[in-house]
Amino acid sequence: MFTPPGPASLVALATAAALTLPAAAAAHVGPAATIAGPDPAIIDVGGVAMAPDGTGGVVFRRTEAGAPHVYAARYDGERWSAPQRVDAGQRFTSSWPRIGAADGGRLVVTWVQQGPPNQDSMYSAALPRGGSRFRPPTLVDFTIGDSRAAFPSLAMAPNGDALLVYQRVTSFSDALLGNDYVNSQVRLSRFNGSRWSGLGVPVNRIPTAPLRRPDALNAPRVAIGADGSAVVAWQEPDEALQDRVWARRIFGRRLGVVLPVSPTTLGGAPARGAADALDVAISSNGRAVVALRQQPDPAARGERPRILVNQLDEPESGAGRAFGGPQVVPEPAGAPVPGAPRVAIGGRFGLLTGWAGGGTGALAVGTGATAPASVALGPVPDGPPPVLAQGVEGRGTVAVASPEGGGRVVVSELAGAATTSSQGVSGPVGGPVTGLVMAGAGNGNALVAFAQGAADEGQIAVARVDAPPVPFAVEVPPEWTNVRRPLITWQAPPNDPRPRDYTVHVDGRVVARKVYDRGLQLPLGALADGPHRVTVTARSRTGGGQTTTPVSTFATDRRRPLVTVTRRGRRVLVRVTDPGGGRRASGVAEGGTTVDWGDGTTDDGLTRRAVHRYADGGPSGVLVRATDDAGNVTTLRRRLTLPGPRRPAERPGPGTDAPADGGDDTATTRTAARRAHR
To answer: Which CATH architecture fits 474-556?
Structure first.
């Protein structure tokens, strides 16, 4: 059973300048690709998604025939396809577009289509692997009540499974609690790669209890990992009508138990303030982190909201049945009231948290469950809050809308406490940034999508971030091999699963270029006997540079062992040597020699030397089989004529049975341990 680390080793960014001044360039932030516009019909950007293999998509809304409709474009890892309308055939207003991406270029888009009062419907359309057009819209939920408060959250796994959580509001006021509360249920639907199905029961603890009026700060969130592990988090009042944050694991089509996330006490005092502004992230092996904002006691003066993070360990760990406890994220000195936090995790223990408020932002980078220290992110204008994604080995990405140059998005790639690259991106005609979203692939790569421009020249643009190169593993034959065409295999780079091609180097020489598979059988004559050093270089197809494996070593030896047999009288000596010599010889295998002396005696488990004395003279023979460490085998048969009298053959006397095999019943097999002939 795996035990997570205790107090985490945390890495804090030293200064705000470290986020804006690029260090040694190791990552690549590409220019923004214009997906749509400039066009006065563009309304907003709904979401962006990226799968681990580098494919993805973006969804946005555009007015057509006087009504807002949903459009989406696919990214194949190198190029963007033309956007296409997803809610084809639907005449009324479409809202709340969301998008998910799976490996192979698969996309799922969800949205709400306006219907009669309190009868709006949730729809979806999928773009399958290899397809060029979205399939016709299919129904997810016939009625979600009033769509003004849907606030859906969509998450998709690399294998094509997806989860959608949303509010189903039936009344925007409660008879006892007034207009601040609604009659609503938190609903969850699952996509299995071809169709949607509801989980049947609401997510919230008490489905009949009123919920706080939905908004962007208390909307439910869902996250799903590469292994199918999933977590949903939401806000719901407790028995004292204190707004708390809760979560459940999702096991296929079954909901786990309700787990409290926000605290009931904080700093030794009851936490009487509301918990809101939640966000959730999950790793590929099921570790989940929920970030939230804890409001102060309404009766207290001078207290500030606090940003908290709480971790749910992997399901296989002993601590994976409950959250470990909320941790306060320290704020930078002089920071204003914090806004809604965003959280991302990468690798097994990476943690990245960011938020903005009062015109400035803050960022925290760390590992494990303990909340990291924070530093100022610098000026953040009013508008879209910062967005972020986390990769492997402490790498992360943060994007901030900036008014500089008439409007742009500044994308910074982080590696621990340093910024490896920072670049401003913009649409073709610039303008204020009105929407900003980011999707990470889980390996450090990300897509940053934004809506930009004045009302009469709206634009949808997306920039790709390629994480700094991460070394990957290469597998070579064992320490010694006798194969004439050894097979070299390797894994794809963690942050570039679909590189353009590979180059294989052996002993500093290029033996193959433009290899597209993750394996190569070396050509005949490429290797001489002796040790060899192998590296493989992956070349990115998206401008991310080259990534090279660490050096792996092995050796070849194709010469068979040499066996000599020497006789002196009736004493016979067998010697085994490896003829390669020096670094080109693997050596005789320990215990890899067997000698059949021909007189009913066999010695096995020998290595380099064996001696045998025959009791009688006459014709005989020796059979030797020797193996070296590379697997080469020599078999030698030698006929001998031994001096001295022959031993007469014994005949069984009357009433005596002969041996069943017709041989000598006194024959023995002597091991090296008994004879010690080395």
So the answer is: Sandwich (2.60)
661 Cβ contact list (under 8 Å, min separation 6): none
Helix (H, G, I), strand (E, B) or coil at 170: strand
Fold for 562-648+664-675, please state it: Immunoglobulin-like (2.60.40)
Q: Please give the Cα distance from 172 to 184 (Å, whole number).
A: 9
Q: How many residues does the chain have?
A: 678
Q: Give 175-182 contacts, CB < 8 A, sequence gap 24+.
A: 176/210, 177/210, 177/241, 179/213, 180/212, 180/213, 181/210, 181/211, 181/212, 181/213, 182/149, 182/210, 182/211, 182/212, 182/213, 182/214
Q: What is the pLDDT of residues 58-88, one digit of tens each?
A: 999 999 999 999 999 999 988 999 999 999 9
Which pLDDT belongs to residue 668? 33
Q: Is residue 502 within 8 Å of 489, Cβ to Cβ?
A: no
- Provide the β-strand partners of residue 139: 123
Closest CA to 273 of 291, 292, 254, 255: 292
Long-range contacts, 84-90 (Cβ 8 Å, 24+): 84/133, 84/134, 86/59, 86/111, 86/125, 86/134, 86/137, 87/111, 87/113, 87/123, 87/125, 87/137, 88/125, 88/134, 88/136, 88/137, 89/136, 89/137, 90/123, 90/137
Which residues 6+ apart lie within 8 Å of 301 measured at CB?
none
User: What is the DSSP-derived secondary structure letter of residue 673?
Assistant: H
> Which residues are registered as beta bridge partners of 29?
465
Tens digit of each residue's pLDDT (9 = 90 or more) over 503-558: 999 999 999 999 999 999 998 888 899 999 999 999 887 766 788 899 999 999 99
Cα distance between residue 298 and residue 248, in whole Å: 28
| CA gap 172, 151 in Å, rounded | 14
Separation CA 295–CA 283 (nearest Å) = 28
- Where are the domains positioned within the chain? 16-466, 474-556, 562-648+664-675
* Contact indicator for 549, 496 with CB cutoff of 8 Å: no
- pLDDT tens-digit readout, 221-265: 999 998 889 999 999 999 888 999 999 999 988 999 999 999 998
One fold for both 16-466 and 474-556?
no
Cβ neighbours of 26 (radius 10 Å)? 18
Determine the pLDDT at residue 648. Answer: 59
Report the distance separating Cα 469 and Cα 538, nearest Å. 10
**Which CATH architecture fits 16-466?**
7 Propeller (2.130)
* Calpha distance 574→412 (Å, rounded): 71
Give me the sign of the Cα torsion angle 77, 81, 87, 88: negative
- Which of helix, strand or coil describes residue 660? coil
CA 63 – CA 86 distance, rounded (Å): 13
Instruction: Report the first-to-last Cα separation within the chain, whole angstroms.
Output: 46
CB proximity list for 585: less than 8 A, separation 6 or greater: 557, 559, 578, 579, 628
